[in-house]
TrEMBL record, chains A, B, C, D:
Gene3D superfamilies: Aspartate Aminotransferase, domain 1, Type I PLP-dependent aspartate aminotransferase-like (Major domain). InterPro entries: ArAA_b-elim_lyase/Thr_aldolase (IPR001597), PyrdxlP-dep_Trfase (IPR015424), PyrdxlP-dep_Trfase_major (IPR015421), PyrdxlP-dep_Trfase_small (IPR015422). Its cofactor is pyridoxal 5'-phosphate. This is Threonine aldolase. Keywords: Pyridoxal phosphate. It comes from the Bacteria. It comes from Chitinophaga silvisoli. GO terms for biological process: amino acid metabolic process. Belongs to the threonine aldolase family. Residues 19-284 form the Aromatic amino acid beta-eliminating lyase/threonine aldolase domain. GO terms for molecular function: lyase activity. Pfam families: Beta_elim_lyase.
Length: 339, 339, 339, 339
């Protein structure tokens, strides 16, 4: 069975495994005090054109989110996100477990905008409601959509004007960037912090938290240790991000995943089906008859995302760094047969 | 420079790297729903002779401690530990950050006993002090000492009689077990839960939380997700523990580290030095003149553990799965030259 | 200026002040170990016909909610409430500050029903979303509506069948009970816990938490102390609830407030205005032209609750144990003049 | 039976009850927006000679401590206190429940000094231990001792030099101030914040949190609401502190309690007994034979504080605003008879 369930079904880029092998016996410092982590940080800083960005490597996305978000909020402060935001919808209350409310606004395409933000802020009451402090967005979003550069800048400026911090969840950053026009430098300039997803972009595990805002950098390591996010063998994370940020590796994985997803989408459209939402990233949401879904499930792994009506449902298909063109073609061929 | 700073300075057992390489392209389920994790769990259960133990793999020790401990306590309940206990001394308030007080008792050798426990319990007041609920011990301890089987059983029975849970931090479990007479089955019978340390025993990262007490097993996964401890690519953890628990691999690493540490200790003793505390595990604490320490620091990495007096301090030397006999011999030879 | 802003603008029932005066020099135990608290508890138990109910007196409603709710939840468990629920909307993230997410469903009339509950439960995912555990309702609700006995029973039975606890916020319990047909015994039988509001029903301060479910009673006092809710001079709370639960005092205050509110509503309707929502309790929400609102604000205190359109807004008027008939008549007369 | 158990066994100063009675029907704003609270705040500011102090009234001491302390700490920051400190010893883990570790140093007399503080700070490790941020002291202390002005200044300057905040728990502030030479202005200048105890100084309930440090004032009200400490009928607290801070009322209560305690102590000494620790405040700790204790317990209420040896134990006797001279004399007379 071929799985399109997600982008973490396989292991890691061969280059990462190779790097692990050839450095294995070299003694290194613990807790991120290893050479590889330092090299990774320097490579990322260069890409961002931001020599003073504080960069910390952690093992997973929920961990990145909860550790960073809780580190910048005072106890009575809240986060604003869209209702489909990963921290609100799919992290088992991880932010609330650190003591903070997530306020939500509904966005059909999973993207936050200055006007949605303003409409929420306008009805916040003093003292009897938490003070909103941080805005959370994802790129690409949980619905496969992505932000454009102008949208990111507008949102950041809106946040600035309202005393809000902007944080971007980049679990699928490469795919999101390649679908749009946001460049590394934009992330460094138009967010207070973000994380660069490794797990869903060819690493074994790992996410790189980047803190741009200098006022949020000091003491962040204490939070990492306190939340159980500071790995003794930080070298494992360092090596992977060093490999991902050599040359164009990181973004080219995103480009590859998007290409595979677009081929898949084209084939599905050719077979006569529509999509729940337009996506140019590695997550696509075709709407198929239940009967066809049942049939396809016999040979392929994927999630049924959302019931549309009696007849149809949207499924989610995700491509990865290791998705094969043959798998895509086979899927489309089988779909056409089913119809 | 050769480092005796800790047991996580190198990468992983070659068998682990090999397993990663040959399984890399095989698609697997996420979040621990992969074959390797299931295989690892079965191997561990067999060793423990405990088919119903709940086993969860996480990336680090502080994470294992905070996730498990916070999962079993009601808000007003506390943990009891010795003052040198890792959760009290060296985890940046990770347990308190989940809302719980750690009550401490002093133990010269870093080991908790029924009488120390009783003396603490006797002075607890109702309502105005937290209700003690869980006892935390480490094996081997933070001072390099270890528990004997009879001591573990006595402590567990004491806990049982007082309505307390017993939890064992096994960051250095193999070394602790090989120094004494505790067997896998004892851990399954005489603790409510414990974790098997991988990071300090030849893995890249990873610890295996074992929950023996059936009343504490249900819903534990929710805590993992909520604390950021549930890895999308759980396969990384599964593969490693599968390799460590094939045959005697896990314990034999402990035996090897202990052997290297004992050779080092013998050489140091031969050179005329005493130890802060007796240790049969992979951490030893020789007391050296400051002058000698300075000299040795030029060629070797280690921590100065504790000032003894004007003349002397204890240093900590730690051996690992990859410590070479030549390094041990070189250290001893250099020490003799220094003296 | 006469205030209809809320039901806590005045002091306390004269009987309460009298009781404070005549007991002032009598020495009593601290932390709720006083005779008055015991007497109050017995009076409440009699009303509830529930000799084993655990009853604890605290100083405020948010405190009652956060202390009780956090005491029964495991870390990964959530609360379900309507979006207008006080804990979600107006308590500054107090529940989230104890580490728990509040999941919400929308209800036009501010009341939760089995079908709304079921529709939420149906889409909860395992592990990646918190486990719902407690259902929060208010009676009367934040919109002035109230539950009927049959509705409470249906909701409780629905909760029971789904393994959920039912908790009722009784900040305005007397008003809510008098508007409908719920009796004290029903609260004891068809909720797991609830609180009886004193502050908004003629006390200086104070709410009585009643825990019906025996499994939730033990150790609750520890939570009170830990959350800062255990008053040294518990006598102040005990005396007040003793006075409120002598004879029919408590409910008769509710009846009086409702009567004043209904007179006010009748006058407003007579003056030609409609209401945002039907209410039989001490909170009413007439819809008035902005022009009229401005005029009335000169002589009366009240909150503008919600913009309706360009022309109109709903205001909130609240009656209290001390609202005078003359004030009600004057308001209506002035309103008629304004129109 | 006459109780010397504590200073909260009786009700309130008659002036407070009178003020409650004559203002009872006057409508006032909620949540501290009442005239009495504003008057109380102005009176306290005058006493402190500190027009910009932020002052907030809450219902109890644990609530004051947990709300203030948690409001100023970042997640990874800790509090330093002596082992007898109330927050460490007797508040059921209330501070830890907000996520913070309390680090302790031992002080025989229950008082923290710059040298004790320095010895703790010197051994704090970066990242792997919490960052100490706030120093907690009590005046009078839990052992009945008190700080002198010079000691307070020295401690504050030490804190300043180390980047630490100084917070003083004034549950028994009047007694502590009257025993030594600290004046109101000193509290405003040489602490970052403190609270003025009402409950143990003649109020029904209530403590006044005073935040001197302007950097800690903004948004504090949000914390109050979030922790359940913002009373709807704040007037109850306002009126009481208004009465306590008219003229010298507050301090004269302290003087009276101390006078009664000193008479009690003189009589006990005369009867031939020593004290566990020297105290000039309203808590004294005579050491009596067990036999005598048993006898005295028949007529008087008090706590056995600490076993001294086979023969003797220290008891705690506390005087209040309402302790009668006759009760003191009777106690001494009975003690002499017992001996």
């Amino acid at each position: 069975m071929i799985s399109f369930k997600n982008d973490y079904s396989e292991g890691a880029l061969p280059a990462i495994l190779h790097a692990l092998a050839i450095t294995n016996e070299i003694q290194q410092g613990g807790y991120g005090e290893d050479d590889y982590t330092q090299e990774a940080i320097e490579l990322i800083r260069e890409k961002l054109n931001s020599p003073h960005a504080a960069i910390h490597l952690v093992s997973g996305g929920t961990q990145a989110n909860l550790t960073f978000i809780s580190s910048v909020l005072r106890p009575y402060e809240s986060v604003i996100a869209v209702t489909t935001g990963h921290i609100f919808h799919h992290e088992t209350g991880a932010i609330e477990a650190t003591g903070h409310k997530i306020e939500t606004v509904f966005a059909k395409d999973g993207k936050l905008s200055p006007s949605l933000l303003a409409s929420f802020i306008d009805q916040v009451e003093v003292v009897h409601m938490p003070l909103p402090r941080l805005v959370y967005i994802s790129n690409s979003t949980e619905l496969g959509t992505h932000y454009l550069r102008a949208e990111l800048i507008a949102l950041y400026e809106c946040c600035q004007s309202k005393g809000l911090l902007l944080y971007l969840d980049g679990a699928r950053l490469a795919s999101g960037m390649q679908a749009g026009d946001i460049r590394y430098e934009d992330l460094a300039r138009y967010t207070d912090a973000f994380y660069i997803g490794g797990t869903k972009n060819g690493a074994l595990i790992g996410e790189a938290i980047v803190i741009n805002n200098p006022g949020l950098q000091e003491y962040f390591s204490y939070n990492l240790k306190m939340r159980g996010a500071l790995l003794a063998k930080g070298r494992l994370l360092g090596l992977q991000f060093r490999e991902l940020f050599k040359g164009d590796t990181y973004l080219s994985i995103g480009a590859y995943m998007n290409e595979m997803a677009m081929k898949l989408a084209a084939g599905i459209r050719e077979a006569g089906y529509e999509f729940l939402i337009e996506s140019k990233t590695n997550q696509i949401f075709p709407v198929l008859p239940w009967k066809v879904i049942k049939k396809m499930e016999e040979k392929y792994g994927f999630y049924v995302w959302q019931r549309v009506d009696e007849e149809c449902a949207a499924i989610r298909l995700v491509t990865s760094w290791n998705t094969r063109l043959e798998a895509v073609e086979q899927f489309v061929a089988d779909l056409k047969t089913c119809s």
